[in-house]
Amino acid sequence: MTPSSTPGRALVVGATGIIGQALSTQLVAGGWTTFGLSRSGRPQPGVTSVAADLADPEALQAALADVAPQLVAITAWTRQDTEEENIAVNGAAVRNVLAALEPARSVQHVALVTGLKHYLGPFEAYGSGDVPDTPFREEEPRLDYPNFYYAQEDELFASAERNAFTWSVHRAHTVFGFATGNAMNMVLTLSAYATICRRLGRPFVFPGSELQWNGLTDVTDADLLAEQIIWAGTHEAGRDQAFNIANGDVFRWRALWPRVAEHFGVPWEGFEGEPRPLEQSMVGMADTWRDIASEHDLVEPDLSRIASWWHTDSDLGRTVESLTDMNKSRRAGFLGFRDSRESFFDHVRKYREAHIIP
């Protein structure tokens, strides 16, 4: 695969997720014959849907028998109660997918999406111990904690050596993108939160830590991440490398939060003494959202498929600085960027146009 070659066949694992949808859309637009693997097999425009459970090797082999992709992107993971379980389940998912594709011998490049827990540690030991200085750089060694990202990488590296394909790893920060039923969707979660606040006459309260309110942070636009994956799979400089992927700018939530509140027409409150998590303040709001969905004829009345309170609390509640260095990617030739503020409101617009929020 080179920039001048005719696009071939691509497989997106986790095609209905926040990253998978963005990547599938770009692949289709670029002329790739695109297959989207998910548990539900939910259809997407221009994508041949494939339904299978990543935990079922036999089902995967049957579902992927005739796909024969050249480019594979693994964008899915499943949250478990402990990191030991995360390692077992998510490491096996990568192993099972790549094993199912081995017989066709078609794979030329595999891209794996991970994230900043590579540098910060798993949920169970997040930000503790010997965390590297920011901005995080790709050459930092692994932490001395079990981490499912490391397990996924090891499965990727072993299969690449065995099957002679190239690979790339894409370490994203908090992703701004378009999806429902996704475990890590801050834009939609905050949009739902603001909508509920407006409905109930509540202030739009920042739920996170003092550091996240006052400090600098960065995020990753899903469309930018998709661009980097395709670039890495079609350029020599992208092969056999791990790359950070963030928008290339920084911002403070204390500056963006009032803009979000103004956009949704609600009063706001910043950090005041201690975090005020959404998982607590949004308990019992399922019926409120169902009423909102009915009144505005929204397509998704189930709040659990709209908002991921726990993940937004985790991101906004950090007590360690999280900034990403993009120089390696730039030196290699990937020069994409986004304005994070524009990214947030662009995805809000998409959710409105899709009648997911009022």
Explain what you see.
Helices cover 41% and strands 14% of the residues. It has 358 residues and is an alpha/beta fold. It folds into 2 domains: 9-172, NAD(P)-binding Rossmann-like Domain (Rossmann fold, 3-Layer(aba) Sandwich); 186-216 and 251-320 and 343-354, no CATH class. The strands form 4 sheets. The protein has a 7-stranded parallel beta sheet, with helices on both faces. Strands 7-10 form a two-stranded parallel sheet. Strands 8-13 form a two-stranded parallel sheet. Helix 1 (18-29) packs across helix 8 and helix 3 packs parallel to helix 5. The protein is globular, with a radius of gyration of 20 Å.
Work out the oligomeric state of the chains in this entry: single chain
Report the CATH topology name of the largest domain: Rossmann fold
Can you tell me the CATH superfamily of the largest domain? NAD(P)-binding Rossmann-like Domain
Mean pLDDT: 95
The amount of beta strand, in percent, is 5-15%
Whole-number total of structural domains: 2
Question: How many β-strands, per DSSP?
Answer: 13
Enumerate how many helices there are, as a single number: 14
The helix content is 40-55%
Assign an overall shape. globular
Strand order of the largest sheet: 3-2-1-4-5-6-11
CATH architecture of the largest domain: 3-Layer(aba) Sandwich
Radius of gyration: 20 Å
Structural class: alpha/beta
Low-confidence stretches: none
Question: Would you list the SSEs in sequence order as H and E?
Answer: EHEEHEHEHHEEHEHEEHEEHEHHHHH
Biggest sheet, in brief?
7 strands, parallel
The N- to C-terminal Cα distance equals 43 Å
Please identify the top-level CATH class of the largest domain: Alpha Beta
